[in-house]
């Protein structure tokens, strides 16, 4: 969505709006999934606030992020949903956040990748790959900069 020119997404508004049928087709049970990086900074900020308050990432609930995300992407000129009628008319049912991954999650990704390759899980390898990843904020190093995206390539060079 963040790569889409603002306003283009409103072209599908008739398919999401409250109509019985559109050109003889009912879209009432259709599921549209829009992926976007817009709002990532808001998600990260909320996750950091939870962490700094001594709360776990797993304690973050949809109700903690959804209002912030909908307003944030609506007002973000680079979101693809900027000033979109989809948000303005409440046509998007849920904003599902992808939370940043912590060190323990990166280690789980390494283990899963090793298993997928049919290799034995060596905890020394798991730790070495996880420690090569970069984390933020710089001082605290809580969340992975790239999630698990580079785990495969890092295992390739071991």
Automatic annotation (TrEMBL):
It comes from the Eukaryota. Signal peptide: none annotated. InterPro entries: P-loop_NTPase (IPR027417), TOR1A_C (IPR049337), Torsin (IPR010448). It holds the Pfam family TOR1A_C. Transmembrane segments: none annotated. Coiled coil: none annotated. One of its GO terms (biological process) is nuclear membrane organization. It comes from Pipistrellus kuhlii (Kuhl's pipistrelle). GO terms for cellular component: endoplasmic reticulum lumen; nuclear envelope. This is Torsin family 1 member B. It is found in: Endoplasmic reticulum lumen. Belongs to the ClpA/ClpB family. Torsin subfamily. One of its GO terms (molecular function) is kinesin binding.
């Amino acid at each position: 969505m963040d790569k889409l020119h603002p306003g283009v997404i409103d072209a599908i508004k008739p398919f999401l709006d409250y109509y019985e049928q559109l050109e003889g087709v009912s879209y009432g049970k259709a599921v549209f999934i829009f992926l976007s990086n817009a709002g990532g900074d808001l998600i990260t900020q909320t996750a950091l606030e939870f962490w700094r308050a001594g709360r776990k990432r797993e304690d973050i609930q949809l109700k903690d992020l959804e209002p912030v995300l909908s307003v944030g992407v609506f007002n973000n000129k680079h979101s693809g949903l900027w000033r979109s009628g989809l948000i303005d008319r409440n046509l998007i049912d849920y904003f599902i956040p992808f939370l940043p991954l912590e060190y323990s999650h990166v280690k789980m990704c390494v283990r899963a990748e090793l298993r997928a390759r049919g290799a034995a899980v060596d905890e020394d390898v798991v730790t070495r790959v996880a420690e090569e990843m970069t984390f933020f904020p710089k001082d605290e190093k809580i969340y992975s900069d790239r999630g698990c995206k580079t785990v495969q390539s890092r295992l390739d060079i071991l």
